[in-house]
Specification:
Elements: E1 3-11, H1 18-26, E2 33-39, H2 46-56, E3 60-64, H3 70-80, E4 83-88, E5 94-95, H4 99-109, E6 115-123, H5 130-141, H6 145-150, E7 164-166, H7 167-173, H8 183-193, E8 198-209, H9 215-218, H10 224-237, E9 245-249, H11 253-264, E10 268-273, E11 283-284, E12 287-290, E13 302-305, H12 312-322, E14 331-333
Parallel strand pairs: 1-2, 1-4, 2-3, 6-8, 9-10, 9-13, 10-12, 13-14
Antiparallel strand pairs: 4-7, 5-8, 6-7, 11-12
Length: about 325
């Protein structure tokens, strides 16, 4: 029996939050969906909760992970899914009642899209540090396909459990892969590098729980170095495959780290660009630091903007565009 949407819900030791997540799914205004819940060897009674709910809700299908870990659970759920659309959900998050209604209607109106996300709100607010507030704001500024593509090497431009993807597009990309880096960001980059289009419904439809127990906090595959390794992999296979040379805008710790990664990968870093007068004219790690005037050089190589200061990227983008540089062809931003 088919349905429009299959919700992929991996569950591991989520007994304290699982029922709230399930309630939010079953209160959706759009009803043509199934929940494919895969228990990943829970030890806290999560499997029993799922089975109890499944007895009274026919749209909930409960499976046990034949492997171990998130990727195996996601792939098991994907293989069992009967919907043409795959919506992600985590067992500690909460959906707005109209999430599926608005995402499904958006995809019906835009058949060119491989998937869509939405704006999100982190909770509980009292636990959030300023860095997470800035991250939430950055996520919610990304809405259009162009936004998603432009920001893809800064951080994951979509929040994974907020997305609804076409099952056929995920299959074309090869599904979820077990790598030494985040499985969701890896999938998004493969979709984007294959030319697929992703965007967001410009409404807050997902409430994303911030917890020290999240995989993105605990699992080393989600740490900053693993993210950089993944971004480098896709940069070398994509935008940087056409050049062996680059310049780095930003001579701070992030820019210098990217310069080392590029050199280790056999790319030549000609120079840093920076606005700090204490750095301009010096050499850092053997690489000269030039002022922003270097952007006007006719022979300027491909530029990676690696400045993380709030508001810096729009200014750098404006400076490069002002001298005829085209984003994606001539420059990109990384973090």
């Amino acid at each position: 029996m088919t349905c429009a949407v299959s919700v992929l819900l991996p569950v591991r030791d989520a007994a304290t939050t699982l029922e709230a997540a399930l309630r939010s799914l079953l209160r959706q205004t759009f009803s043509d969906f199934e929940i494919v819940a895969v228990d990943d060897h829970s030890q806290d009674g999560s499997l029993e909760i799922l089975r109890r709910w499944a007895q009274r809700e026919g749209r909930l299908r409960v499976l046990e992970n034949p492997g171990r870990g998130l990727v195996a659970a996601l792939e098991h759920a994907r293989a069992a899914a009967r919907g043409a659309l795959l919506s992600r959900m985590d067992a500690d998050d909460v959906c707005h009642p109209r999430r599926f209604e608005l995402q499904v209607s958006h995809l019906l109106r835009h058949p060119e899209l491989a998937g869509t996300g939405c704006r999100v709100r982190l909770f509980p607010r009292g636990r959030l540090r300023q860095g997470w507030i800035r991250y939430e704001s950055w996520q919610n500024e990304i809405v259009s396909c162009d936004d998603v593509r432009r920001e893809r090497f800064v951080e994951s431009p979509l929040v994974h459990p907020s997305v609804t993807l076409r099952a056929a597009a995920v299959a074309r990309a090869g599904g979820y892969r077990e790598r030494e880096w985040p499985e969701d960001y890896d999938l998004f980059l493969r979709l984007l590098e294959a030319g697929e289009r992703l965007d967001k419904v410009p409404r807050c439809l997902f409430f994303w729980r911030h917890s020290a127990r999240r995989a993105s906090v605990q699992d080393r595959r989600y740490d900053l170095e693993r993210h950089r390794e993944m971004k480098l992999h896709f940069l070398l296979a994509g935008p940087l495959s056409r050049t062996a040379e680059a310049a780095i805008w930003g001579a701070g710790p992030n820019g210098r780290r990217w310069a080392r990664l590029l050199r280790d990968a056999g790319r030549r870093v000609h120079f840093f660009i920076d606005i700090d007068p204490h750095k301009i004219g010096k050499c850092l790690d053997g690489t000269p630091v030039r002022s922003a005037a270097a952007a006007q050089d006719a022979a300027l190589p491909f530029v990676l903007g690696a400045v993380g200061s709030p508001g810096a990227r729009p200014l750098i983008r404006q400076a490069l565009r002002a001298v005829g540089r085209v984003e994606e062809r001539d420059f990109l931003f990384v973090q």
